[in-house]
Structure formats: C-alpha cells, structure tokens
Amino acid sequence: MLKTLKTQGEALTKALWHLGNEIFNCEEDAKKSLKAIAKKYPLYVVESEILAQHKHAKAGRPKPGVVPVQMGYHIKTHFKLNEVEMERRLCAKGRFILATNDLDVANYTDQQILEEYKS
Fold first, then answer.
1. Is the pTM of this model over 0.90?
2. Which long-range contacts (CB under 8 A, 24 or more apart) does 82-89 make?
3. What is residue 56's predicted lDDT score, i.e. its pLDDT?
C-alpha cells in the first residue's frame, strides 16, 4: 500500500504541476480539468484555488497608469491523503469467504470450517 501511495503521490504532483501552469479561458474549464485529475486519484483530496491571471498587452516595461488586462485563469493546488478512503481500503484488505453446502450450524461450526480450510 505504501508503494502505491508513493507512486500515486508522485504522479499527482506532476499532474497538478502541469495543471497549475496551464491558462484557462474560464473558471468552468479549470474546474473540469481539476475534477478529471482528482477523480483518477481517490486516495488523495485535492484542494484548489482558481485565480484570475492579469498581464499587460505588450511585452516589456508598462507605461505608468496602464492597467493590466485579464488574460485567463490558473489553478493553485495542493493535496493531502484521504484518510477515510485509506481506512476503508485497509479494512477491506485481506478478507476472504469460506462457504459450504452444509447449512446445519450445529454440525459444522465456523471454527471447524476455518480449521479444515487451513489444513
């Protein structure tokens, strides 16, 4: 489980870095992209902030009094481990079912089924 966490954490870091460098035309596009990435990594909770990006129309030093123009939106993100999902996966790990056709519990107890399985 630790190896999975490490590899998914590295992949999520890389994906969020690329997402943070992308400029979106509207907030909805940014939210869709973030939702698609967060869906791939259920072991992590992605928290984000969508910021408007302002730039000047021309390259170089702007003249005094020139107001920057809004060019798009970018996402600032960070993530943390999803404790609820981790607990659910750890509790479900290592379970198995033993079944029998004998429905009489008095003749064949659960402990006897387990002992027979192990032998």
1. no
2. 82/42, 82/43, 82/44, 82/45, 85/42, 85/43, 86/43, 89/1, 89/43
3. 81
